[in-house]
């Protein structure tokens, strides 16, 4: 009837309809077609008060398109046997809190776990999108002595990956637990921020450890230099580190990486310290606050906002660390040769 309206309609998702059958409900239809209940309602101009009318055609085309996009975004986690992790429900958890924590939606969690409502119980194991973390190898005898005066025996190596670039492959040797904790942290950042660009990896240690040119530490396989994530990947990155600015740093994604590293600190061989420019700490601090971390908890993570000489926080200011994180891992508890 109206030409303008017709043209507009053609650019929308292809119309595909479903005739409502007895026993249908919005959850079921959303799950069958891969989108969320909210998507279905939106495509059909329904409010939460509207009931499904048997015999009515509802548009599922937009739902199918949205479902495809969501699956691509989640790394095909939904419905294809793709990457999935398990999460054990803790006291105080709600579905929406778990969804937020894993950067997914309540609808996706319901679909992944075949839940109808919002009732979950403490101790229940839920499937959440993302890669299952690898088991941390806790080998003894690899890291000998101290980071500033030590060496490496029978080293492990950070493998080649499409998720990062090893700038100097001859300096990618380390203790096994550093490699495993680091890979898990990078996976976690990528789970939370699908589509991240490659990360620059600087030096770890060389094959037998010991003094490494350009560094004071990095001698015993417990240090690694890791670049940042950027809103727009700088021209020479990841071949070169790039200085962070308030405008170019992707503070949310970089915080996701730092957060995953910080969370290893309670585990055997986890992160001991991170050296990072004070100003960059401030930008990540803001991202962490936005992410729901309290000021009290962040006091254990950052020196910010108490100045670059503050004596708290596992992240400490170091000059010339405005283009990478220098991450130091602890010794494996049972390893007596590691200092
Ligand atoms: Zn370093």
TrEMBL record:
It comes from Plesiocystis pacifica SIR-1. Residues 16-60, 85-128 form the LysM domain. Residues 1-23, 200-220 are annotated as: Disordered. This is LysM domain protein. One of its GO terms (cellular component) is outer membrane-bounded periplasmic space. The keyword Transmembrane does not apply. The keyword Aminoacyl-tRNA synthetase does not apply. Transmembrane segments: none annotated. It comes from the Bacteria.
């Amino acid at each position: 009837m109206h030409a303008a309206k017709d043209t507009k309609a053609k650019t929308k998702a292809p119309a595909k309809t479903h005739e409502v059958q007895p026993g249908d409900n919005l959850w079921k239809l959303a799950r069958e077609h891969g989108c969320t209940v909210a998507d279905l309602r939106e495509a059909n101009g329904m409010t939460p008060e509207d009931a499904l009318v048997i015999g009515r055609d509802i548009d599922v085309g937009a739902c199918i398109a949205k479902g495809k996009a969501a699956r691509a975004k989640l790394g095909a986690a939904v419905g294809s046997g793709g990457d999935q992790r398990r999460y054990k429900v803790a006291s105080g958890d709600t579905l929406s809190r778990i969804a937020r924590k894993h950067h997914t939606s309540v609808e996706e969690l319901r679909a992944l776990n075949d839940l109808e409502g919002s009732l979950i119980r403490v101790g229940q194991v839920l499937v959440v999108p993302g890669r299952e973390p690898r088991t941390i190898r806790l080998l003894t005898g690899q890291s000998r002595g101290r980071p500033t005066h030590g060496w490496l025996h029978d080293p492990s190596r950070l493998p080649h990956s499409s998720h990062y670039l090893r700038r100097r492959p001859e300096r990618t040797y380390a203790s096994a637990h550093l490699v495993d904790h680091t890979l898990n942290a990078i996976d976690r950042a990528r789970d939370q921020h699908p589509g991240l660009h490659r990360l620059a990896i600087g030096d770890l240690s060389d094959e037998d450890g010991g003094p490494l040119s350009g560094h004071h530490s990095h001698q015993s396989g417990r240090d690694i230099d890791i670049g940042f994530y950027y809103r727009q990947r700088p021209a020479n990155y990841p071949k070169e580190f790039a200085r962070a600015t308030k405008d170019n740093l992707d503070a949310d994604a970089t915080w996701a990486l730092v957060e995953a590293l910080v969370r290893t600190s309670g585990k055997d061989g986890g992160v001991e310290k991170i050296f990072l420019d004070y100003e960059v700490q401030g930008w990540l601090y803001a991202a962490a606050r936005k992410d729901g971390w309290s000021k009290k908890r962040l006091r254990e993570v950052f020196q910010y906002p108490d100045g670059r000489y503050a004596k708290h926080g596992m992240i400490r200011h170091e000059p010339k660390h405005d283009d990478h994180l220098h991450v130091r891992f602890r010794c494996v508890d049972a390893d007596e040769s590691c200092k």
